[in-house]
Write a structure and sequence with these properties.
The complex is a heterotrimer of chains A (174), B (457) and C (395). Chain A is α+β, with helices and mostly antiparallel strands and 174 residues long. Chain A is built from five helices and four strands, in the order βαβαααβαβ. Chain C has a domain of 261 residues. The chains are: A alpha+beta (174), B mainly alpha (457), C mainly alpha (395).
Chain lengths: 174, 457, 395
């Protein structure tokens, strides 16, 4: 399968934001938007659902906390109990610091790894740069041409107020 | 959806920069060969590093006895340096995480370098406890792994073990945070690189970043989560460092205010170091439009605030030493100010409490030369602070018969000097290999408070 | 956008029954406290001290919040600033209560009895600081300094409503910087004087910071409660958005965790070092049913706020935020009760008329006073140069 794409290039965050809103209101399918930085509000304009990565963070954090707390109790009080300075074998206050550190370690590293995996970003991966300058000063909105009735001129008219610099049609091979 | 800003706000980026100007200004230095000044600085730093390396090699080969330590004074330069460097690191995390959560947009121009500074400072800090063990090749014994000695586990009730976990976790998270922030900028470098090798290296490291907003959307959430995790983490790290002292029963060490006091002191010294570095970077790399006087002023204000907390802690400790009615507590503080190492105490007070008071004046906060000098004074003062805390309580312990003194040996000094060499060597290399300002984030605040004034599209 | 934001009536005037009931509770509280001071001084005075300190903390937290916002150049909070200003407005009456509490010195403080001091080496060593005249002078000094700052911060803010003069913002910024320095020093000493010296042999350097964190946490909760009530009843309906609540929620979340951090720092160091003269503090507070209060303290001030406010959604949820804030305000009472009462009730906490009376009366006074103070000014600082940012604020 291949699909036809319409690549629209803008010059500012406000323009792509307004264009995206207009495109969505008019029922166009937004494939993606490519910008040099995270444009505030663009995700909402595109209609991206909230990410669930926070749950991964929370889950891993809780896992880290539970595992480390258990490990400290097990090593200190069960596997080889050693009396140090008369402190109780299970010294919960003393186990808090390390438990906390490991919680943060699990949650932090896990979240980042999950992010790269979910976003399919891997070391050495060849980037598909949609348009030159998209990591510099260009803001690119990609629409899908769903069917034959797709009218490029209509889109052009719709985007006219937003200082579009370029518009090109592409065919994407799968 | 555009944000509305009051007319009282000052723009964060000056001189009508466009998006591509920002990319060019930040990346340009990486295109040229290093300047003579860079080479000069690098040779000096690297030489210091070599001196430190030789000193450490000699110390490891001979034993910890080559330091000026004795039976009474088991901690001196080594732990002072350790606490000093860890403290330096804290400003980076504060800028990248805490100021992010507080939506302080001015952080964007300095966070990249400050985070790099954090990583390098933690590397410098990590060396000292390891070489202090005397047999650093057994450092892995600190890690709880199943072994054939029982298995004998590490003592999780010991603050030194907490410290090991705190520092290694802090290093890992700082690095991950920094790298995540770098990925989009590495993609920018990749896309503008002309040489094949550069394109390959930056391409490899940028993980195939393409600027997709589906990724940006997740990225922002990840950044927020990391900031939320790094904030308590940075507090916990210096807290745990303070517990190395405060869980003991030594007067002057065992005091409950130590955790917040150490954290504030760490941020205080870290910001001084950020200012020292950024004022040089700004001048040398012509970043005046990005690191503006406004940025410098903001950092001075953080210094005033954290310096104030440090001052409050000094005062509280003194007052409570009196209030306690406990003769050992009282003696510890009289000895601190008037004992054999009293001069270090007064250096500490004048550098950390008196010098920053200059920053109450707007004129002085905006005077680059004054800020630079004060930032160095604070660096010195904060090194002495740790020395004062460690030294004055140890030289005069409970038993007068064991009172003693500490004189640093040449090896002590060479190791300290070497750590500075390592720090600056790493920072100089960083300045040649990676963008020192977060390109994407600065673009994001380009319109801040410009209110259309001279916006160039 | 800005409409009907001029001087409004006291919101309680619109609900006369509530006002009457609050006044009744206040009067009953005052009567209970007065009777208790004579009938059961050992029980009543600590609770009167608690109530006065609690109310004073709320007023101070209002000033502290304003000062922090000015110093950090915060824009988001300007639209709700009249709420903390109203809290600051109760400082005079709270100060009066604190002065009245001074009458209880003989029942409260062991060091005020000459015979207790003469037989105690430590108390003799501290007599230069812990003696009645100096204690009274210090109390009056703290109260007057705080009042001066609160008075001028409010005054300049209101003056700006009329003149729109930007230099008033700058003036308040300077005042705020000064206030932060002053409050850090004075509140540390004040909390040590009023609360720590109840057990005069015990000391902890973090004590002031601990009280400061609790004061700020409780103050933020109270500000949020007041803001939510004002949003529901009218004066701030068009102004306060979910974004403002979100930011308040974030601050509450942060300071709740900060409070926990300070609490734990104090606890672990004393627990770990295990020095008898220090550790007795926690031993007394974990004896018998005091353990329950120790647990509730952590649950109310940290665990519940932390878990509930972890997600973004809940911080923006008005009803949920209100509930959490009420829990924190109860939690702060538990915290203070756990600090103040153990020397008087060795076996365990007792919740009787002497506890409920002064506290309930004080809470009624708080709401009556705050809403009255709120009605004295425009509900929003109309001409503050940062107001635009706050009105258009979205987080």
């Amino acid at each position: 399968m291949s699909r036809r794409l319409l690549v629209n290039v803008f010059q500012s965050d406000q323009d792509i934001l307004n264009a995206t809103k207009a495109a969505r209101e008019n029922g166009y399918t937004i494939v993606d938007a490519y910008t040099p930085y995270a444009v505030h509000g663009l995700d909402k304009a595109m209609g991206i659902r909230p990410t669930r990565i926070g749950w991964i963070c929370l889950g891993l954090g809780l896992l880290g906390a539970a595992a480390k707390l258990w490990f400290q109790i097990w090593t200190s009080a069960f596997d080889w109990p050693v009396n140090v300075g008369g402190k109780p074998l299970t010294s919960l206050p003393a186990f808090v610091p390390v438990t906390f550190e490991v919680t943060v370690l699990f949650a932090g590293v896990g979240t980042v790894v999950a992010f790269f995996l979910v976003s399919r970003l891997l070391p050495g991966k060849r980037p598909k740069v949609v348009y030159e300058g998209v990591t510099n000063d260009k803001f690119v909105l990609v629409l899908a041409e769903e069917d034959a009735s797709f009218d490029v001129e209509k889109v052009e008219k719709l985007f006219a107020p937003f200082h579009m610099v370029k518009m090109e049609e592409r065919v994407e091979e799968d | 959806m555009a944000e509305v800003y009051s007319t009282l706000r000052t723009p964060l980026v000056l001189d009508n920069k466009s998006y591509s100007d920002i990319t060019r200004d930040v990346c340009e230095t990486l295109d040229h060969r290093p300047s003579t000044a860079w080479w000069a600085a690098f040779i000096v730093s690297f030489s210091l590093l070599v001196i430190g390396a030789v000193a450490i090699a000699y110390q490891i080969a001979t034993g910890v006895g080559v330091w000026g330590l004795n039976n009474t004074i088991g901690w001196a330069f080594d732990i002072t340096n350790f606490v000093f460097w860890i403290g330096i690191g804290h400003a980076g995390t504060l800028i990248s995480a805490i100021l992010f959560l507080f939506r302080q947009k001015w952080r964007t121009s300095v966070n990249r370098s400050a985070e790099a500074m954090t990583i390098f400072a933690v590397i410098c800090a990590g060396i000292f406890p390891i070489i202090h063990t005397g047999r650093p090749w057994f450092a892995f014994w600190l890690i709880p792994y199943p072994n054939f000695r029982g298995p004998l586990w590490i003592n999780f009730r010991s603050p030194l073990v907490w410290d090991m976990f705190a520092i290694s976790c802090y290093f890992t998270i700082s690095f991950v945070f920094w790298f995540t922030g770098l990925v989009p900028d590495l993609a920018t470098l990749r896309d503008r690189a002309t040489s094949k090798i550069k394109k390959k290296i930056y391409g490899f490291l940028s993980f195939g970043w393409d600027g997709s907003n589906r990724t940006w959307h997740r990225y922002e959430k990840v950044y927020l989560l990391l900031a939320g995790l790094a904030t308590p983490l940075v507090v916990s790290v210096h807290t745990i460092v303070s517990w190395d002292f405060a869980t003991s029963v030594i007067p002057g060490w065992h005091t409950t205010i130590l955790p917040p006091y150490f954290v504030a002191g760490a941020v205080f010294s870290g910001f001084a170091m950020v200012l020292t570095l950024m004022l040089i970077v700004r001048r040398v790399l012509h970043f005046e439009s990005y690191i503006t006087l406004h940025h410098i002023e903001q950092m001075c204000k953080v210094i005033i605030a954290t310096g104030g907390i440090v001052g409050l802690a000094y005062a509280t400790e003194l007052f409570v030493a009196y209030y306690s009615g406990n003769e050992y507590e009282r003696f510890a503080f009289i000895n601190r100010a008037l004992g054999p190492y009293g001069w270090t105490y007064w250096i500490m007070v004048s550098c950390n409490i008196l010098a920053p008071q200059l920053f109450w004046f707007k004129k002085l906060r905006r005077n680059v030369a004054v800020v630079f000098v004060v930032s160095i004074i604070i660096n010195v003062g904060m090194w002495f602070e740790r020395f004062v805390i460690i030294m004055t309580s140890l030289t005069r312990d409970f038993l007068p018969a064991s009172w003693s003194a500490f004189t640093p040996t040449i090896i002590d000094i060479a190791t300290l000097v070497g750590s500075f060499g390592l720090f600056f060597t790493l920072f100089l290399l960083f300045s040649r290999l990676l963008p020192m300002i977060s390109i994407g984030e600065v673009k994001n605040v380009l319109h801040y408070a410009n209110n259309g004034k001279g916006d160039k599209k | 956008m800005i409409m009907n934001l001029h001087k409004s009536e006291d919101v309680l005037a619109g609900i006369p029954r509530l006002r009457r009931n609050l006044a009744l509770v206040m009067a009953l509280g005052a009567i209970t406290a007065s009777i208790g001071a004579f009938v059961a001084p050992e029980r009543a005075w600590p609770n009167i001290l608690l109530a006065s300190f609690y109310l004073l903390s709320l007023g101070l937290a209002g000033v502290l919040f304003i000062a922090l916002q000015y110093v950090s150049n915060a824009g988001w909070s300007v639209a709700i600033r009249r709420a903390p200003e109203a809290l600051a407005g109760i400082l005079p009456i709270a100060s009066l209560l604190m002065v009245i509490t001074l009458l209880g010195i003989p029942s409260l403080y062991e060091w005020s009895h000459a015979d207790a001091v003469s037989g105690n080496h430590l108390l003799q060593a501290k007599a230069g600081w812990l003696n009645v005249p100096f204690f009274v002078i210090r109390t009056i000094l703290y109260l007057s300094v705080w009042f001066v700052f609160a008075f001028y911060l409010r005054k300049f803010s209101r003056q700006q409503d009329a003149t729109g003069d930007v230099s008033l913002t700058r003036k308040n910024k300077k005042l705020s910087g000064g206030f932060l320095v002053v409050i850090a020093l004075t509140f540390t000493l004040a909390s040590m004087d009023w609360i720590m010296s109840l057990e005069p042999e015990w000391y902890s350097t973090i004590f002031g910071m601990y009280n400061l964190s609790g004061m700020l946490l409780n103050g933020l909760a109270a500000i949020a409660v007041v803001v939510i009530i004002l949003r529901r009843t009218g004066p701030l309906r068009t102004v306060v958005t979910d974004s403002h609540l979100h930011d308040l929620g974030k601050l509450i979340f942060a300071f709740s965790t900060f409070w926990m951090y300070i609490w734990f720092s104090q606890y672990i160091l004393i627990w770990y070092a295990n020095i008898p003269e220090e550790v007795v503090y926690f031993v007394n507070r974990e004896k018998g049913s005091w353990t329950i209060f120790a647990g509730l303290n952590v649950v109310f001030n940290w665990l519940i706020p932390f878990v509930v406010l972890l997600s973004q959604w809940s911080k923006k949820n008005e009803g949920l935020l209100l509930k959490v804030c009420v829990i924190i305000m109860i939690g702060h009472w538990i915290d203070l009760y756990w600090m103040i009462l153990p020397p008087f009730l060795k076996t365990g906490p007792e919740v009787s008329l002497w506890e409920i009376g002064p506290f309930a009366g004080m809470i009624a006074l708080f709401f009556l006073g705050t809403f009255k103070a709120f009605a004295q000014a425009n509900p929003v600082p109309l001409k503050d140069p940062l107001l635009v940012e706050s009105i258009h604020h979205h987080s």
